Amino acid sequence: MRSAGVSLVQRFWQAIGVVALALAVSCTSAAATSRIKDLANIEGVRQNQLIGYGLVVGLNGTGDTLNNIPFTKQSLQAMLERMGVNIRGATIRTGNVAAVMVTGNLPAFATQGTRMDVTVSAMGDAKNLQGGTLLVTPLLGADGNVYAVAQGSLAIGGFQAEGDAAKITRGVPTVGRIANGAIVEREIEFALNRMPNARLALRNADFTTAKRIAAAINDYLGSKTAEPIDPSTVQLSIPKEFKGNVVALLTEIEQLQIEPDLAAKIIIDERSGIIVMGRDVRVATVAVAQGNLTVTISESPQVSQPNPLSRGRTAVTPNSRIGVTEDGKKLAVVKDGVSLQQLVDGLNALGIGPRDLIGILQAIKAAGAIQADIEVM
C-alpha cells in the first residue's frame, strides 16, 4: 500500500512538472511572437505634416531685434495693418515679438473641430520664448491648403538666466509646445470602409515575415485572401462578409500573432562605440588575438662644461632611450556556428573594450568568417 501511495504521489508531481514545462515552453514561444498590429501599418492610415509661419507676442524683452531681423518687422507691420493700425514709416523698437515656425502632425481621420499639438520654434535672434503667446497661424499641408489653425500660450521646456558676467542656459528656451493648440479646419477624405482591398506595409521589410503574415491571415479567415507581393507589402482582398465593414476585418487581423524573421545584422556606431548584434549572427571557427604596441621615447641630454679659464665650449650630448612594450592578449578561439551569447562571451574573454571590438568584428567580416551584414552608422 505504501509503495502504491508513493507511486501515485510521484505520478502527481510528474504531471505537475509536465504542465509547468508546457507552460514554460508556451510562454517562451509567446514571448517570441508579435502582433501584426506591431509589425505593419495599414496603407493610407497615416499622419500628414503641417507647417505655418506666425508671430509670438508677450515676450519680456527676449524677442527678435527688429533692426536685425527684417522679416519679423515686416510681419508685425502687416499684422497691425490687417487690424487697422498703420505704422508705415514709424520706428518700432519693441523686443517682445518673435517670428516663429509652427509645425504639427495632422492625425489620420481627424475631423473638423478636433485639436492637435503643435511645436513652435524661433526663427530670428530671440533669446527666450517663455511667457509668449502664439497669434492665429494657419497650418498648411504639402498641397498648399490650410488644414488647421494654431493659437495659444507656449510651454517652454528650458530656461535662460544671465547677469553682467555670467549666463546659464538649460534646455532649449527658443522652442516651445502648445498642447491641443491647433484646431482642424479641413478633413482629409479617406473612405476606408469602401475599399475593395487593403495593403499592409511592413515596418521592417522581410520576405519571410511577409509570407508569415499572409499565412496567418489566410489560416484565420479560412481562404486565400492575403498575398505577399514584395518584402514590405501584403495585399489583402476584402472577403464578401466584410464588404462595407473593413474596420472589423482589420481589427481582427491586427491581433494575430506571428514570429517575425530578422536578417543577421551588426550595427556599429563608431562615434559612441555602441555595438548591436542580432540573435542570428553566426561565425565560422576563427582565432582572435588583440594587442597594443606602445613605443616610448625619452630624452635626457647630458651637458659637458669646459674647465675654468680654458678656451673650451659648452657641449650638449644627446641621450635618447627607446622602449617598446607590446601588451598582447592570448589567442581566443571562436568556434563554428556559435550562438550570439557564446560569441559575446568569447570576445569578452579577451578583455577588450567596444572600440577594439569594432575592429575585431570588421576583421572577422573581412576574413569571410561571419555570416551577418555589418552596418556602420
TrEMBL record:
Keywords: Bacterial flagellum, Cell projection, Cilium, Flagellum, Periplasm, Signal. Pfam families: FlgI. InterPro entries: Flag_FlgI (IPR001782). Residues 1-31 form the signal peptide. It is found in: Bacterial flagellum basal body. The keyword Ribonucleoprotein does not apply. GO terms for cellular component: bacterial-type flagellum basal body, distal rod, P ring; outer membrane-bounded periplasmic space. Transmembrane segments: none annotated. The keyword Signal applies. GO terms for biological process: bacterial-type flagellum-dependent cell motility. Its main location: other. GO terms for molecular function: structural molecule activity. Assembles around the rod to form the L-ring and probably protects the motor/basal body from shearing forces during rotation. Belongs to the FlgI family. PANTHER family: FLAGELLAR P-RING PERIPLASMIC PROTEIN FLGI, FLAGELLAR P-RING PROTEIN. The basal body constitutes a major portion of the flagellar organelle and consists of four rings (L,P,S, and M) mounted on a central rod. NCBIfam families: PRK05303.1 (NF003676). This is Flagellar P-ring protein. It comes from Rhodopseudomonas faecalis.
